Amino acid sequence: MLLRALSLENWQVPEPLSYIRNSSEAFLAGRLDAEFFNPGIDQLLKRLSCDSLKIRDVAPARKERFTPNETDEFHYIEIGTLNNDGTAQAQCLPQREAPSRATQYVRSHDVITSTVRPNRRLSASISEQQDGFVCSSGFVVLQPKHISGDVLLTYLRLPLICRLMDLYTSASMYPAISESDLLNLPIPKFSIATEKAVEQSLKSARQAKQRAAQLLEAAKRAVEIANEQSEAEALAYLRCR
């Protein structure tokens, strides 16, 4: 849906066999890898920069530091607890056992995105129930101010955007994009109609997931009823769900 709004639905990054760049451009960018200077990437950046907006303009980074104590517990979101549907899970831990990377609070409706290996599309929205949870320093915590949180989440998970973020990573063993580079990525201004359509699509998907989880639990209970009572009782139970 967003790709259609960006006129990128069927667009592919061109892969020319060769291209030339000035050494001054390489020194200015601080990069020598050829893919970073692919002319197709320039085309993509120009398309995304049509409104001269950057992510920092629509969703600044939250800077709310978490300092653990010796008595309380906290809920911790780490990179490994993100789901592939753009949601996050958390584990409850004693604060005295807080990992060194547990450094920042998240608030409801924030969007968190992993700076490590961004090609894995690891971004998630924070629910109202997760307000005040703590996340790893491996995330940038974004506060959607002038954009729908659902649209921002969808944008950050687009394969083209993840590829773009991946180009800005450094190191090979633990490739990560800096917070500054992430916040400086271009983002267009989406129409109200597009934002509403994306929000409705994600709402429907979340409701479908919730319903599927309810049906799964009902099926498990029906198996128990069939074993303990009869198949007829189990079917009657399922009809009421």
TrEMBL record:
One of its GO terms (biological process) is DNA restriction-modification system. Keywords: Coiled coil, DNA-binding, Restriction system. InterPro entries: Restrct_endonuc_typeI_TRD_sf. The keyword Membrane does not apply. Residues 198-233 form a coiled coil. GO terms for molecular function: DNA binding. Transmembrane segments: none annotated. It comes from the Bacteria. This is Type I restriction modification DNA specificity domain-containing protein. It comes from Methylomonas koyamae. The lineage of its organism: Bacteria, Pseudomonadati, Pseudomonadota, Gammaproteobacteria, Methylococcales.
